[in-house]
Amino acid sequence: MAGVKESPRARTLASANDLVRVRAPLPEDGESLSRLWKLLWDVHESWGSYPGSRDPDVYRELSLRLTEEARVRGPRPLSGRHVHLVAALVEEGNSRTIGQVEGWIDRHGIDPRTKWTCEVRSLVVSEDGRHVGAARALLDGLAGVARDALHGSPAVLAAEVLEDNPAMAFYRRVGFHTPAHSVRMRTDVARDVRPLCPARIAVPQDALPLAFLEGGLAERRRLARDDRFDRPRALDAAFVDAIATHLALASQRGTNDPAELIAVDGKNLPRASATLAFAALEPPFLPGVRAVLSRVSVDATTPPSAVVPGLVSLAGRLAKLAGAEHLEIVDLPPAATPLHDALVAVGAGPWSRVALRDV
Ligand SMILES: CC(C)(COP(=O)(O)OP(=O)(O)OC[C@H]1O[C@@H](n2cnc3c(N)ncnc32)[C@H](O)[C@@H]1OP(=O)(O)O)[C@@H](O)C(=O)NCCC(=O)NCCS
């Protein structure tokens, strides 16, 4: 991929802790990694996340896939944009795999000054391998691979942590802050919320007010020190044109395609916007659809409580049509802010936070 190149330093990553070694997965790690994934899925399910499969065949296939991937990847933790690292505990000359993490290197936005994001995925350490520094070493290893791959371009590690997960304290301990919050609600509850202002799918004529709303969103993210996104930009004709073109292309949307939603006032003027997108849940999750409402932005002169019900109700109807049981609403300010409170008032509950740290 352009801009991401692997460095030879990534081939052997020794942690600061003598007992823990961090390296790329080996083909013989397949079974231990599959067990770690099951552990991760089971604890997440216990905190209310999407259900994982109970079928042993699903985990046997996962083990074979991980073995094959390790064979293809060789000693390099980086493959394209994907990073995979394992932690091994070395005791009396014996080494056993106790943890793993994946990373996905990407860049949001179009501003070249925006930091790269290395999304932290599936960080897990076996119960009997905890508190010896394995997770810290895995994150440090991930940061090192990202730094080398990006030749030192500024980047952040970003992890989504469920509200009920005790790992939140771990992330704080190892230097992360949590600029973005999310809530979740059932789609049938969202669908039945009574709108105060109408909401609809945006059309190209909405491009100018959407560009203003985009500016408000960028400012909110900047104030929260969420470095994953572009900072606020000057409004110009090219930007408005780009939004209009994007909206025109989206006019042929199918049931599971993303949608730009807006809530309008009595004069049909957009006062709030949000983006609805869907993703398929893949094994080891049970099959299903994940619906995510992001980029919620409300005009500074409008109370969120006036426009949120309409946006949520429309998103709930579209998500229900797409087959989603839940609607996640992400990229929000913290609890006890007007936007967050307006979502809680229509039935959403705390769901997760994004934890960030510079690499
Ligand atoms: C969260 C998890 C990865 C931590 O792994 P670990 O290898 O035990 O963590 P480390 O030993 O590297 O801990 C680093 C520091 O965080 C602290 N810490 C670890 N887990 C903690 C917890 N649950 N609460 C508070 N602090 C914690 C450690 O005490 C250590 O502090 P120190 O600097 O004083 O030594 C592990 O508990 C786990 O796998 N949990 C289940 C899966 C999960 O939730 N993954 C995260 C998904 S977002």
Keywords:
single chain, 359 residues, alpha+beta, Aminopeptidase, disordered N terminus, binds coenzyme A
Work out the helicity level.
Answer: 25-40%
Bound chemical compounds: coenzyme A
CATH class descriptor name of the largest domain: Alpha Beta
Give the CA-based shape.
globular
Corresponding CATH superfamily of the largest domain: Gcn5-related N-acetyltransferase (GNAT)
**Residue ranges: pLDDT <50 for 5 or more in a row?**
1-16
Task: Quickly give the structural class.
Answer: alpha+beta
Termini gap: 20 Å
What does this protein look like?
The radius of gyration is 22 Å and the shape is globular. β11 and β12 form a beta hairpin. Helix content is about 35%, strand content about 30%. α6 packs across α7 and α8 crosses α9. Strands 1, 2, 3, 4, 5, 6, 7, 8, 9, 10, 11, 12, 13 and 14 form a 14-stranded mixed beta sheet that branches. It folds into 2 domains: about 170 residues, Gcn5-related N-acetyltransferase (GNAT) (Aminopeptidase); about 170 residues, Aminopeptidase (3-Layer(aba) Sandwich), CATH 3.40.630.30. The protein contains 9 helices and 14 strands. Bound molecules: coenzyme A (COA). Coenzyme A binds next to α1, β6, α3, β7 and α4. The site of coenzyme A has 21 residues, from α1, β6, α3, β7 and α4.
